[in-house]
Amino acid sequence: MEDEIICNCMQVSKHEIVDSIKNKGAINVQDVMDITSAGTACGSCIDKIEEIVKSER
Ligand code: FES
Predict the structure, then answer these.
(1) What is the pLDDT of residue 1?
(2) Is 44 near ligand 1, meaning CB less than 6 Å away?
């Protein structure tokens, strides 16, 4: 589901992460973190972010 929350700490949805990759030039997890703030608090969602980065490339 596109609006599923991937990062609970920062309330970042899958849609925002995909958007950062497709439309904002993110090519890796660090870029997604910089653009969306996902993964910048507890870090437990980083594996999920990585999966999305891999599946969108
Ligand atoms: S769930 Fe993403 S930083 Fe905590």
Answers:
(1) 65
(2) yes
